[in-house]
Each structure stands twice: as structure tokens, then as C-alpha cells.
């Protein structure tokens, strides 16, 4: 069964930089991000993606985002070297300024 990738699927404390932002500030950022993404969700077959992760040496998350980019004919902006290598034609390296 396909899984929809949205910020609603991510537990509240996964990426909380506790020293930099309050919980309420992070929740507000999450609400704004969700509002901006309404209508832009894309389904990914979670089982198929996990099976593909075995073959490309990427994280499941990186693989899933790359899969959506490939399906949309878009470039994925990433700093993940494994994703860049595995999906060279579909990715653009993010270089910190």
C-alpha cells in the first residue's frame, strides 16, 4: 500500500534543535510547511522503496525523495552524497554558501 510522505508522518521530536528553537516555534514552522504543501503530496510505495534501498546504498528517506523527483521529471536538491551518486541524472548538489 502506498505511503504518503508528509510532515504529518514525522514525530514531533525527530529534528528538534532544542538549543535553537522552542517546541512552539517548531510547531508553527511545521504548520506553515504543511499549509504550503497542501495539494503537493506524492505517494510512494513504501515496500518497493525499501527493497530498492538495498540496491542503491541510500537512506530510505533519500531514496523516496529521489523516487518522487524521478516520477515528476524534476531535479532533487540534496547534500546527500549517496543520493547524488545513485541518482546523478536526477539530482543537484546543494553546496552550503
Summarize the structure.
The chain has helices at residues 23-37, 46-56, 60-72, 81-86; strands at residues 2-4, 43-45, 76-78, 91-93.
Characteristics of this structure?
97 residues, alpha+beta, two-stranded antiparallel sheet, two-stranded parallel ribbon, 4 helices, globular, disordered N terminus
Task: Walk me through this protein's architecture.
With 97 residues, this protein is α+β, with helices and mostly antiparallel strands. It folds into 2 domains: 1-41; 45-97, no CATH class. Helices cover 46% and strands 12% of the residues. It is built from 4 helices and 4 strands; from the N terminus they run βαβααβαβ. The protein has helices at 23-37, 46-56, 60-72, 81-86; strands at residues 2-4, 43-45, 76-78, 91-93. The radius of gyration is 15 Å and the shape is globular.
In DSSP terms (H or I, runs of 4 or more residues), the helix count works out at 4
Spell the H/E element sequence: EHEHHEHE
Oligomer: single chain
Distance between the termini: 40 Å
Percent range of helical residues: 40-55%
Q: How many beta strands in the DSSP annotation? A: 4
Instruction: Order the strands across the largest sheet as they lie in space.
Output: 1-2
What Rg, in angstroms, do the CA atoms define?
15 Å
Beta-strand percent range? 5-15%
Q: Main β-sheet, in a few words?
A: 2 strands, antiparallel
Mean pLDDT: 75
Low-confidence residue ranges: 1-8
Number of domains: 2
**Secondary-structure-derived class:** alpha+beta
Shape: globular
Amino acid at each position: 500500500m502506498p505511503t504518503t510522505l508528509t510532515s504529518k508522518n514525522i514525530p514531533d521530536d525527530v529534528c528538534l534543535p532544542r538549543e535553537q528553537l522552542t517546541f512552539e516555534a517548531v510547531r508553527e514552522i511545521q504548520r506553515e510547511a504543511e499549509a504550503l504543501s497542501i495539494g503537493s503530496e506524492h505517494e510512494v510505495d513504501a515496500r518497493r522503496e525499501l527493497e530498492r534501498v538495498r540496491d542503491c546504498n541510500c537512506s530510505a528517506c533519500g531514496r523516496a525523495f529521489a523516487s518522487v523527483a524521478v516520477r515528476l521529471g524534476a531535479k532533487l536538491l540534496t547534500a546527500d552524497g549517496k543520493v547524488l551518486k545513485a541518482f546523478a541524472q536526477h539530482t543537484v548538489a546543494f553546496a552550503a554558501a
